[in-house]
Amino acid sequence: MPSILSIPHRLDRASMSCRAIIETPKGSRTKYDYDPETGLFLLDKLLPEGMCFPLDFGFIPSTRAEDGDPLDILVLHDEPIAVGALAEVRLIGAIEGEQREGEHPAIRNDRLMGVSKSSNLHEGVTETQQLGTAFLDQLAQFWVNYNRLRGRSFEIKGIVGPAEAAGLVEAALSEE
């Protein structure tokens, strides 16, 4: 059985679509991480009371980001998506960010954003700016606070559109 990390990426520039594996559903305080050694999703941590994941959170298989993990992705869908589900998503942009832990140099740790192809509520969303400034600001602050809880800093470098997000995927495709 192939590793979930090596599932073909299927980036389609024409439709700005790719595949995503969901690790943590929207609304969950419980953070899960895929464990390649077992092929299961490891219970990682519990967020504080009152704090939960604002969107489904996962990764794009067959990619490797600067932090050594697959690219992170936030997925808009009508309902929370189950842990371990493979979702076809249309890229709408990315939150570009730098993460720093202690005295280590800052590394890029972008959060791509996409819409589930099976979403009815968000089918008309084609770029991040359609989500509104207040929502995007709150989403960015979630990552600042999430990282602070883990003893790291997270600095927002910008919010980009679908073409730039597709470029980030292309640049992170694994050679394996």
Describe the structure.
With 176 residues, the chain is of the alpha+beta class. The protein has one domain: Inorganic Pyrophosphatase. Helix content is 16%, strand content 37%. It has 2 helices and 9 strands. The chain has helices at residues 133-149, 162-172, and strands at residues 17-24, 30-35, 40-46, 56-60, 71-76, 86-101, 107-108, 111-116, 152-160. It has a 5-stranded mixed beta barrel. It has a two-stranded antiparallel ribbon with strand order 2-3. Strand 2 and strand 3 (40-46) form a beta hairpin. The chain starts with 16 loop residues before the first strand and ends with a helix. The model has no long low-confidence stretch (mean pLDDT 92).
Can you count the beta strands?
Answer: 9
Please, what is the average pLDDT? 92
Q: How many structural domains in the coordinates?
A: 1
Per CATH, the architecture is Alpha-Beta Complex
CATH C-level class is: Alpha Beta
H/E element sequence: EEEEEEEEHEH
CATH topology: Inorganic Pyrophosphatase
The poorly predicted ranges are: none
Q: Counting H and I runs of at least 4 residues, what is the number of helices?
A: 2
* SS-derived structural category: alpha+beta
Strand order of the largest sheet: 1-4-5-8-6
Name the assembly state.
single chain
The CATH superfamily name is Inorganic pyrophosphatase
